[in-house]
Amino acid sequence: MDFGRSAEEHSFRDEVRTWMHQHLTDEFAVLKGRGGPGDEHAFIAERMAWERELASGGWTCVGWPTEHGGRGLPLHLEVIFHEEYARAGGPGRAGLIGEGLLGPTLIHFGSPEQQQRFLPGIVDGTEYWCQGYSEPNAGSDLANVSTKARLEGDQWVIDGQKVWTSLAQWSDWCFVVARTEADSTRHHGLSYLLVPMDAAGVETRPIRQITGTAEFNEVFFDGARTDADLVVGQPGEGWKVAMGTLAFERGALTLGQQAAFEREFADIVADAKRTGRWDDPALRQQLAALSVRLRIMRWNSVRSLGVSDSGELMPEAMIHKLYWASLHRDMGEAAMSALGPEATLTPYGRADNSHDGDEMAAPHRLFFFTRSDTLYGGSNQIQRNVIGERALGLPREPRPAAK
Fold first, then answer.
1. Is 127 annotated as catalytic?
2. pLDDT surpasses 60 at 237
3. What's the pTM?
4. From the candidates 99, 127, 249, 264, which is the catalytic residue?
């Protein structure tokens, strides 16, 4: 599959570029290149306003079916939108989790009532979501979830803890994987619940990280309640729904991600030329290898797009997280090499070129944040297990005998 060769595709690229050029100006100009990985804390209110601006132009949820408020774009045009958005410096999407994860999940697995209730707020950029998957003892091993929920009358009552919950402090809702069948284990007996973040018994505690920011959090549920009909799919089918969500996570957005990496790579090259490090043949070889890997990332993304009818990740897509996480980590290291001695200086930006004078400068933010790329969303080790067991059909990794 290739993109951009037909007259239709050229015309659509021009449409996206023109709109971005006209609208990513004035009060939104400061958002260019901000709000991406490691920078999600930046300009929250402004990025929420940007979501509404995108919605006014019909640029949210572009791949959703028209009956659910989207444009119904075919995959090749959806990919072009995400690429051109990244190339224009479009900010990290405040509504990404709702648009990219929860929305497609509801379209695929949700009831008509759930779709009518929640999809319009995502399309309009007025309602924001976070993801309640990981726990202190259930990170990459999601099936080890211990958060519990019990049905009392017409409500679920939830007790437990989630961790690494990105943007929870700014979200209206959370989709929570909880154990709803007593004495169930592993992927059995889980349910996928939609929980209001302002409910009594929900507490959010930000986690400060090495970048100095705290865009993800611990979330505690202490008798928190949500309506009985806010379970996606049937009770006990949460594992299937959760895996569907993960499949949507690795869809068309991956090519927009690759375009954003290209922009970061260009900044690394510019720094190398500015500092004189470009004259180092070892660094030039390192950058050449990264350039090749970025091209490979694009073509791997193109050939692995899509999910099966059941919502499961296609086997070809299972390599993507492992590949880009390692690539992005190595880009962070190259960013430091490009700075040379400057890499050892204070990593904080100046007040005249950042939202906050105490913010970390972009190259250092890239380096520090990409340490986590090979951990979150399934560590590299877990990704290799997934590839071996689910894509290649190899025997499961031996597990310690229960005591």
1. no
2. yes
3. 0.81
4. 249
